[in-house]
């Protein structure tokens, strides 16, 4: 588990979710993009919550280890979402021309 501090609030989330969130946030800032992510967390009162984060170039986010023995909340969907987005930011899809031949000029109807 890790303490995640964001906007003067601190929550507990699993190690992998915290690490991926930090990486995603840094990459978004580097690329000049922004995104929103919601993750399952443990709030200050020890209750299960859903924490939403807006990530971008002005995000102040910190992750710190903890000795907590509380079971980590399941964030497999959030981790998968962020991992897909990270892959797209690192290797964006490229556009390629259609392999079909262009029709010859005489095939176009030039009479209006």
Report on the architecture of this protein.
- With 112 residues, this protein is of the alpha+beta class.
- It has one domain (2-89).
- 29% of the residues lie in helices and 28% in strands.
- The protein has helices at 15-31, 76-90, and strands at residues 2-6, 9-13, 35-42, 48-55, 61-65.
- The strands form 2 sheets. It has a 3-stranded antiparallel beta sheet, covered by helices on one side. A two-stranded antiparallel sheet has the order 3-4.
- α1 runs parallel beside α2 (76-90).
- The longest helix has 17 residues, at 15-31.
- The chain is elongated, with a radius of gyration of 22 Å.
- Residues 91-112 are annotated as: Disordered.
- Residues 103-112 have a biased composition (Acidic residues).
Summarize the structure.
This protein has 112 residues and is α+β, with helices and mostly antiparallel strands. It contains 2 helices and 5 strands, in the order ββαβββα.
Task: Give the topology.
Blueprint: E1 2-6, E2 9-13, H1 15-31, E3 35-42, E4 48-55, E5 61-65, H2 76-90
Antiparallel strand pairs: 1-2, 1-5, 3-4
Name some characteristics of this structure:
single chain, alpha+beta, two-stranded antiparallel ribbon, 29% helix
Number of domains: 1
Low-pLDDT residue intervals, each spanning 5 or more residues: none
Largest beta sheet: strand ordering: 2-1-5
Main sheet: strands, sense, barrel:
3 strands, antiparallel
Rg, alpha carbons: 22 Å
Question: Looking at the structure, what is the overall shape?
Answer: elongated
The end-to-end distance, rounded to whole angstroms, is 70 Å
Coarse structural class: alpha+beta
Determine the mean pLDDT.
Answer: 90
Helical fraction equals 25-40%
N-to-C series of helices and strands? EEHEEEH
Q: Helical element count?
A: 2
Number of strands: 5
Classify the beta-strand content into a percent band.
25-35%
């Amino acid at each position: 588990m890790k303490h995640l501090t964001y906007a003067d609030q601190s929550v507990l989330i699993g190690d992998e979710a915290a690490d991926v969130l930090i990486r995603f946030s840094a990459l978004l800032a580097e690329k000049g993009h922004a995104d929103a992510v919601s993750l399952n967390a443990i709030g200050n009162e020890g209750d299960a919550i859903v924490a939403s984060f807006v990530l971008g170039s002005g995000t102040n986010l910190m992750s710190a280890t903890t000795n907590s023995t509380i079971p980590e909340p399941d964030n497999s969907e959030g981790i998968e979402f962020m991992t897909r987005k990270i892959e797209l930011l690192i290797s964006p899809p490229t556009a390629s021309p259609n392999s079909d031949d262009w029709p010859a000029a005489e095939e176009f109807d030039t009479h209006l």
